[in-house]
Specification:
With 255 residues, this protein is mainly beta. Among the domains are: 132 residues, Galactose-binding domain-like (Jelly Rolls), CATH 2.60.120.260; 34 residues, no CATH class. Strands 1, 2, 3, 5, 6 and 8 form a six-stranded antiparallel sheet that branches. Strands 7-4-9 form a three-stranded antiparallel sheet, with no helix packed on it. A two-stranded antiparallel sheet has the order 10-11. It comes from Oreochromis niloticus (Nile tilapia). This is Nicolin 1. InterPro entries: Nicolin-1.
Amino acid sequence: MAVITSCCVWQTGHSLQTSHLFFQTMTPDDTKPVNFTVKAPVYLQIGDTKADTAHSGVCVVDVNLPFGKPVNIEEVTFKNYYTAYVTVRLLRRNPEQEAPAKWCTALRDLPLMDNPHTERGSQDYYTIHRTQMQVEPDHVVCVRLILRQPSLAWLTFSLEDIKIFPHTEPDPEKEVSDWLSDLTLIDQHPDLEGLPDPQTVSSSIQQMWALTEVMQTNQTTASIGRFDVSETHSQPHLSCNECVHDGGDVMKFGR
């Protein structure tokens, strides 16, 4: 895999500073990038002669994927080198048709720097995922990166450490296996220290249940007599008109 390297120089001669902002990729850990070749960057120049050093601020980088092996792209990662904007174009081939491959724009003018005239974002790592693209990046045979830098503060701009990761369909069985492996096994013998003996607790519950059954069986169904309040004396007292014996017979009392 070829990698583009370039040098960037301040016109004022100031030293460069490296930023350390990283973007986490979304590809699985075991996914390897696709092998490809990168053509030399082509800077669009202003003027009729090749000796003219004035640049238009536009650079084109073509990434050729393996011949005869179209790739379904999951994501593209790279390190920025003073590029302000990037446009991604894809050369796709329809496997169901014999028509020639066609170019399409997957992403247009993605900003890589907060301000083209300042350092912020000039040397950061970036990831372009397939969900960010306007078209499905499938059956791709070539990726064209169009770089723009409108600021005259930088003499050179490019992209480094370009990587293209293939898209793979997830394996349902593997996902379930990974999910099960992450589960924590429950201890089959929990700590019972400080808890009462289960047999003793069970015996006590059975005795309480038996006592409840006996009380429900012996519960009387006789009615209880009425109590009247007498106010004939200075102090009121209760008179029992009817009293109930233990056997259930009713006895009446009079004054």
